Predict the structure.
Amino acid sequence: MKIFTLLVFLISLSFGDVVLKIATYNVENLFDLTQSKYRYKEYQAYGKSLWNKKHYKIKLQNIAKVIKGINADIIALQEIGSLKALKDLKFELKKQGLYYQYLSLADAKNTTTKVAILSKIPFVYSRELKVKSSYRYRNILETKFKINNQELYIFTNHWKSKAGAESMRIISAKVLRKRVENLGLDKNFILIGDFNSDYEEYIKFKRKRRHNDTYGKTGINHILRTIKKGKNNFYNLWYDANIKDRYSYIFRGKKEALDNIIISQSLLHKKGVSYIKGSISNYGKKYLFKKKNIFRWQMSYGRIKKHKGKGYSDHLGVVAKFKFRS
């Protein structure tokens, strides 16, 4: 079956246009059961928090269920704890009927969690962009594809959380901006992942004095340049969705768009490879909600947090489609 599917894909590359679904999903702390000093204490294996074989299996099954539902051709992932966790997820997906032959993990330094990519399609290469040496900054994963003779670069991100000030996210944004400028802004770029920034962060940012140590300047809007359309600017696909659907996270009852798919101007033109207008959406199936909140992985509150073996992630996946012309 795998060989047949690959042959069908290769034939489609040779004779016609190809439509691919590209997605991002923060899986919320997918750690394996090996011992590591770099993970959160509630994810130390076989401890008082009950992170054990039973709960790890449930977590893998639940996250795989979501990814299978999304059924992207290429999916960027955040909060992967290790290469083993990524491979275990890939194996669980295969058991559920979704096969990703290709994978890559930003594993060059010991950050608590890492970014990764799963793909049904081979890539030309995958490499890491170093964002400082500190464990507080996760590296960015650069993956290059060539589909229907069209080059496509996907940059998987997970910027510093709102526990840190905006200056920390700007550091990641500058590394990313410098790399795409060096490659050439006329190329096909998809900047994807959990930016811990809203698509209009520069507006919402004004009310967040605790984060504003940059005089109103933001990484996502000012460094990547996503406020206005322009030759050297990027376009955030959330602007192509209905306003009520522009979210991937809920914090204290407020919907936020922390996960973004941002594209270069070349992907807005219907030449070679392009974004399919109207295809951006969050993956918000009913089972992923508990009342008015996202049904995240459940843990008890108290002096010692304990895993309950229920739930998925605190984020929703985000999906968009792209057409590669023959």
Observations:
- The radius of gyration is 19 Å.
- The chain has a mean pLDDT of 93.
- The chain is about 20% helix and 30% strand.
